[in-house]
């Protein structure tokens, strides 16, 4: 795999993607988003990978969509090429857990990309915001939808309408991020969580992601039925037999993802 805008490596069962456009504070241009889509496809297809970390630099996770690229786009280019034909939301559809490890700026599309992930671990220097309003824009990577679902309508509107940045501590207080850690230990913390998740039964992990993400879009009753269906499916796996047997035999389960 060879990429121009991201760095990709694996550590055991964990795939690590580093956004790498330092000259533009990791602004999300089309080429970067295409590469991100491709690497998520690759990791998803690889049974040896069980969890993914998405990170940036110390200065920026991502400072938003690339304003240089965006400034002269026509309606057709934005609507058709960016939203209809592109997989801009690929990270949110990953069937393996994705952890955003965020240091520095996570603004606009950068904040939205972090919210597409299943967990956000923030360095204490992280800054979150949706400054699109200052450009005469609105969020386009579902920020106006994910943010209120995460932090509530009032707090979301405050961020969306003022465009102000908030600190990692404030982001944690309002429920935007899972955890705040010293900047120097950001990747250590993300790796620890990733390796914990990678040790869990892969099919159960996938169905929990599906039950939570899919269920949030349904009525409670439908979501409960959906969970019951997934429970039935997961009950047919070898891993379920192994997990229950290992418990009764007082040993650690060895999950195979089957
Ligand atoms: N796009 C392109 N280039 C950028 C971006 C960006 N979003 N952010 C920073 N850069 C560039 C700067 O232009 C600068 O380049 P150069 O050195 O060539 O002048 C370089 O990165 C360093 O930036 P600064 O000198 O500005 O660094 P500072 O530390 O002074 O400031 C900030 C850092 C506060 C992050 C500042 O750069 C900033 O405000 N950036 C823009 C943030 C922003 O408005 N983001 C929202 C963009 S819109 C969006 O994300 C919409 C999402 C949905 C898109 C849907 C697409 C179809």
Report what the structure shows:
- With 258 residues, the chain is α/β, with parallel strands linked by helices.
- It folds into 2 domains: 6-198, Alpha-Beta Complex (2-enoyl-CoA Hydratase, Chain A, domain 1); 202-248, Orthogonal Bundle (Lyase 2-enoyl-coa Hydratase, Chain  A, domain 2).
- 45% of the residues lie in helices and 16% in strands.
- It has helices at residues 30-45, 67-70, 75-84, 109-116, 143-151, 153-162, 168-173, 186-198, 202-215, 220-234, 238-248; strands at 6-11, 14-19, 51-55, 60-62, 98-102, 105-107, 119-123, 127-129, 166-167, 179-181.
- The strands form 2 sheets. The chain has a 6-stranded mixed sheet with strand order 1-2-3-5-7-10, with helices on both faces. The chain has a 4-stranded mixed sheet with strand order 4-6-8-9.
- The radius of gyration is 19 Å and the shape is globular.
- The mean pLDDT is 96.
- Bound molecules: octanoyl-coenzyme A (CO8).
- The site of octanoyl-coenzyme A has 22 residues, from helix 2, helix 3 and strand 6.
Short description:
Helix content is 45%, strand content 16%. With 258 residues, it is an alpha/beta fold.
Mean residue pLDDT? 96
**How many helices?**
11
For the largest beta sheet, what order do the strands appear in spatially? 1-2-3-5-7-10
Strand content: 15-25%
CATH class of the largest domain: Alpha Beta
Q: For this structure, what is the CATH homologous superfamily of the largest domain?
A: 2-enoyl-CoA Hydratase, Chain A, domain 1
Shape: globular
For the record, the count of structural domains works out to 2
Portion of residues within helices: 40-55%
């Amino acid at each position: 795999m060879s990429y121009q805008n991201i760095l990709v490596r694996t550590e055991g069962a964990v795939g690590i993607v580093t956004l790498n456009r330092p000259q533009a504070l990791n602004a999300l241009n089309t080429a970067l988003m295409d590469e991100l889509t491709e690497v998520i496809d690759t990791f998803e297809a690889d049974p040896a990978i069980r969890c993914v970390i998405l990170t940036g630099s110390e200065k920026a996770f991502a400072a938003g969509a690339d304003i240089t690229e965006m400034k002269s786009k026509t309606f057709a280019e934005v609507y058709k090429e960016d939203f209809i034909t592109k997989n801009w939301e690929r990270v949110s559809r990953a069937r393996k857990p994705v952890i955003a490890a965020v240091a520095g700026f996570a603004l606009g599309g950068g904040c939205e990309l972090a919210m597409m992930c299943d967990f956000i671990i923030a360095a204490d220097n992280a800054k979150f915001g949706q400054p699109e309003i200052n450009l005469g824009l609105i969020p386009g990577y579902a920020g106006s939808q994910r943010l209120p679902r995460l932090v509530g309508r009032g707090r979301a509107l405050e961020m969306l309408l003022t465009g102000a940045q908030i600190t990692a501590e404030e982001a944690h207080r309002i429920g935007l991020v899972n955890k705040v850690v010293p900047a120097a230990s950001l990747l250590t913390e993300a790796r620890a969580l990733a390796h914990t998740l990678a040790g869990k039964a892969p099919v159960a992990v996938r169905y929990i992601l599906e039950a939570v993400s899919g269920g949030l879009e349904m009525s409670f009753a439908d979501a409960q039925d959906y969970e019951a269906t997934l429970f039935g499916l997961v009950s047919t796996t070898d891993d379920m037999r192994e997990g229950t047997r290992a418990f009764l035999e007082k040993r650690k389960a060895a999950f195979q993802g089957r």
